[in-house]
Amino acid sequence: MKARTKFQHQVVAANGRLLPITEKQTEWAFRHTVKHYAFRTPSGQTTCLDCGHRWNETKAKHCTCPNCNAKLTLKDTLCRKVDEKSYFSVITTQDGFQVQRIFRINVYYRKGENAWTSVYEIARYWLDENGKTALTALQRTMGRYLDSFLYGSGLELRNDNYVYQHIADCYVCPNYTVLPKLRRNGLKGTFADIAPQKLMKALLSDSRVETILKNGRKQDLKHLIDNPRDLDFCWPSYKIVLRRKYRITDMGIWVDYLRMLGRCGKDLHNAHYVCPADLKAEHDKFQNKVRILQEQEKRKEQMKRARENEVRFRELKGKFFGLEFTDGTIVVRVLDSVEAYYNEGNALHHCVGQCEYYLKPNTLVFSARIEDKRVETVELSLETFKVLQSRGVCNQSTEYHDRIIKLVSKNVSLIRKRMVA
Ligand SMILES: [Zn+2]
Predict the structure, then answer these.
(1) What is d(CA 134, CA 96) in angstroms, rounded to the nearest whole number?
(2) Dist. CA 71 → ligand 1 center (Å)
(3) Rounded distance from Cα 171 to ligand 1 centre (Å)
(4) With contact defined as beta carbons under 8 Å apart, do 377 and 412 qualify?
(5) What domains lie within the chain, and their CATH numbers?
(6) How far apart are CA 201 and CA 132, in angstroms?
(7) What is the mean pLDDT of the chain?
(8) 55 Cα: distance to centroid of ligand 1 (angstroms)
(9) Which among 77, 73, 27, 29 is positioned nearest to 48, based on CA atoms?
């Protein structure tokens, strides 16, 4: 990507002036961002993979190398090598920009040798005083792993994407340097697991973030930076939290709780609701309330749908209502309400109700009964005037099956007449 704007040209110029990472920073990354091992054989002989020193160790999981003093994780194995990798950040400034430099450290451990490390710089996020951001980075390569980069491609201006953002959320080397504005806005101490670039951008461009940070609430801030929409939503309530010096035990649960309060029509500016003594209990209480509310809505929705169906059904089949014919024993009658379909289906254990036969535009459904006892349900095509199906209990045919079909076929003219009318 070519630099086009003035901002991009300045970034590219500053990008060329950054100095390589120091040995001290590499050493810190090796010590703090990758695992360190001691391999122990069944005989008890233990090897430090940092320095190659051998001794007999009796501890269970962790030990310290008597030679180099490294804190090691013990592994009972006959393996002779292991590789580790990690990402870490160096936060610094250059030519008036705030920079987050992202490095990848690879460590190759070989039994009996000194550990060997290599460090590559992968990406740099550049921020100006207003939080405007640019990225210079190595090119990504296509392949099985998302985080694979073309090491010869150079740290050039590139479009940001989730892979760079993902690796930017990593360990931060202590003793970082920031712009005076960031210092003024309250950035000091650890980043508390907040992705540095996101925190710095927010802190340069959003006064709410400054307020939260200056109140010493990094844990709350972590949630709000990971979920930016939550910040907009809960800010008015969160101001009450700050004023009341209320401590939120779990930010995720608190935001969910706030949403449920809103759902139940409660006042989100009322400290009584916003600062509950027992967050978890209140959360669960309102969760229950919302569930009841949702069930009520669902029932209402079902009733509304049933009413709509009834209207539609009457439009479709109203002209056939009251249609009835008999051969002296069997009486065949048009089903004349949605409820009648469900009753018919429930009585004969078939799905004429559930499958919404009452909404089928081109068929008509009858109930065939003897002395008002249901025998079969008949579906007739309004296009061919043939019986499509006639079914008794559990979709079985009865001894009256053929008689019923005959009776309906004989009276088709009555049905046709209603259609014309
Ligand atoms: Zn050692």
Answers:
(1) 14
(2) 9
(3) 24
(4) no
(5) 6-172 (no CATH), 227-316 (no CATH), 321-420 (3.40.630.30)
(6) 7
(7) 93
(8) 10
(9) 73
